[in-house]
Amino acid sequence: MLDLVPEQIATLERFSRAGFKLVSLAHVERYLGVEKDGFVALLEPVEGKLRVFGQVGLRMGEGIGMLVERRAGKAFVWKQESIAATPALLEGYEHFRKEVRALLETGSHQ
């Protein structure tokens, strides 16, 4: 279990109020996962704050599919699985990224 400071707990509460759920992924259990609309971000406690570890991605089974560029176009990939990045998925991905960033930045301005 992670020892979180009050500011980090307040940030997680903002995520919860915004409709995100906390998730745990076995292979990355050292990070806090937040999920909404099928997308996941791993949050890392650093210097009293939370920041995104790596990049956000699409929940694919027990993993997170990262957005990659391929000859056939963009896709979310995790291990041997691949899901084509449709315009609707890309729009959801961008919305999720912006919402995560805004929720993380909200606490740093208080």
Quick rundown:
With 110 residues, the chain is α+β, with helices and mostly antiparallel strands. The chain has one domain (6-108).
Give keywords.
single chain; 110 residues; alpha+beta; 7-stranded antiparallel sheet; 31% helix; 42% strand; globular
Describe this structure in words.
This protein is an alpha+beta fold. It has one domain. The chain has two helices and seven strands. It has helices at residues 6-17, 87-108; strands at residues 21-23, 32-36, 39-46, 49-60, 63-70, 73-78, 81-84. It has a seven-stranded antiparallel sheet, covered by helices on one side. A hairpin with a 2-residue loop joins strand 2 (32-36) and strand 3. Helix 1 (6-17) packs antiparallel against helix 2 (87-108). It is globular, with a radius of gyration of 14 Å. The chain starts with 5 loop residues before the first helix and ends with a helix. The mean pLDDT is 92.
Layout: helices, strands, pairs:
Layout: H1 6-17, E1 21-23, E2 32-36, E3 39-46, E4 49-60, E5 63-70, E6 73-78, E7 81-84, H2 87-108
Antiparallel strand pairs: 1-2, 2-3, 3-4, 4-5, 5-6, 6-7
Helix pairs in contact: 1-2
Counted by DSSP, the helix tally is 2
Largest sheet: 7 strands, antiparallel
Shape: globular
- End-to-end distance: 27 Å
Order of helices and strands: HEEEEEEEH
Q: Roughly how many Å is the radius of gyration? A: 14 Å
Mean pLDDT: 92
Describe the strand arrangement of the main beta sheet, using strand numbers. Answer: 1-2-3-4-5-6-7
Indicate the percent of residues in helices. 25-40%
Q: Count up the domains.
A: 1
Number of strands: 7
Q: Low-confidence stretches at least 5 residues in length (pLDDT < 50)?
A: none
Strand content: 35-45%
